[in-house]
Please model this.
Amino acid sequence: MTALLQLDGLTRYFGALGAVNGVTLAVERQERRAIIGPNGAGKTTLFNLVTGHLAPSGGRILFDGRSITGLPPHRVARQGISRSFQRTNLFPRLTVRENLRLAAAADGRGSYRLFGSVARLAEPLARAHEVAEAVGLALRLDDEAARLSYGEQRQLEVGVALATRPQLLMLDEPTAGMSPEETQRMTRLLAALPRAVTMLIIEHDMDVVFSLADRITVLHYGEVLVDGAPDAVRADARVYEVYLGTADGA
Model:
């Protein structure tokens, strides 16, 4: 079966700097894949290439067997890819319900079903309630996003990504800045997501990575250093040298 996401020789230069250098990897359907590596390893640049926020300098990106290389973000999203960012990206003055409803209202053509029949309006609302339950915000539906705690805002951002019914959910540092309690809650939330949603996650917290990932890809200077099962990655001396053994874990 064709991998859901396939990167072949993906490259991105900024001037003479190679931020991503010939990355080749495959993410299988229903897989939970973690991307780890030191700061500056090219992790977020890789996400930006896949989601169309940056154009590659070389290589190709296939999603569900079709090329999405160089497509703009809105066209990538239509293929079934949804993403969260390192910083929260919400409508702060709208309620939890409205943030989720707007995401759920996006149809396959990238427009929004804000007007129309009662049935068409009811469907996104029902999806908003369903997702709020999944991300632990069912009791906060009427609260403005700005009034949520930081951890709850991150939960809502995952919910917004899920509300679009993605095939591939890409999460960039979902636990960044969280307290230990919030991190544990987010880890449980992500672990409970249905396997029908393939997950690609950038994360610095190794407890989170080893709790969630089926497979781990380690980037170093924009290249794949190691790719394998969590136990194999944990035992690899190269990974320990360049990442796991560093003083700050960054």
About this structure: The first helix runs from residue 43 to 50. DSSP finds nine helices and ten strands in the chain. Residues 108-112, 115-119 have pLDDT under 50 and may be disordered.
